[in-house]
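so my prof wants the structure for this chain in the tokens format not the other one, which i didnt know existed until like an hour ago. anyway here's the sequence
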Amino acid sequence: MRRLLAAVSVIVFLFSCNYTGGAGPGETGALQVNGRCAVFYTPGPGKQRQLKNDFGAKDYDGIAAANLQYMHEAEQFLAQKKVKIIRTSQYKLNFVKHNGEVFSIDLNRSKYAWEIFLFNGFDDPAKIDITNIEEEYRNANMEPRPGN
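here's what i got, hopefully its the right format
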């Protein structure tokens, strides 16, 4: 019974919010984000291992392919709008607003997998629905502003 409880405790710990999944060097540290841009977060090797366990190896490839396709379509749209695109697998994002205020996001949580954050440089960044980039772009007030 103790072994079972110990095993359950380990499993709960591994799937807790701060599990790094054996994060690689490109996944740790903080990325500082300034000005109008889109941050494309894709899971690094450590996070991929975690997601394969969460989704099941059988379903993971299809989920990854669908997300990457939506991200590609979003990238094309944002390139037309001349939005700077930052690609990362780092867990910690520090968005620096025009007034100097910093908005931090920790992506080392199981709910984050393939994400796009739109940042206009003034407001808090917006985590968007990657399947609806045009509407999300409008909602995030991404049109260029003076000082951006």
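also thought this was worth mentioning. Confidence is low (pLDDT under 50) at residues 1-25.
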